[in-house]
Amino acid sequence: MGNFMRRRKARKEEEVSVRNAAGSDLREIVRLWQTNIKTANTAPDIADFFYSFKIYFFVAVCSGSACSGSADTTNKIVGFVGGTVRNGSGHDAHISGIAVEKEHRRRGIGTRLLTTVEREFRADGFGKVTLEVRKSNRAAINFYEKQGYKRSYFVTGYYADGEDAIVCEKRL
Fold it and tell me: What pTM does this model have?
């Protein structure tokens, strides 16, 4: 019961909002991307995605005493989602990156970020959204499946370290 009450108290003290990302958020987006996603994307790659598709980038901002161990607990970015548009067989909405700080996971932040970008894609007329996930990343696969994503196909050696990707898609 003690742990449960502490978690409830922490959630009461923490408030998280989701908003469109701004240019001033890019440094934090890059940090979150590079520390939470096993990727070969460099800071310039991420900046290129951001500036090319800024309307599909959102951040989760935490305020309150439960935000982190830092003294500044106002407006700390604890998660992001970055959407892009791929040209191929028509235009496809695509999730290029999504991450939530470890200490803020399992609180619905990832779901809120994903729902927000999906709503924006839907409003812009996209009928489906795709993403890739590492074949070994069971937690992420489970998360995406709970959000309605279906496994579509595999890409052998997709990641720079040679790991395969599962391509998932969701009808909007």
Answer: 0.85
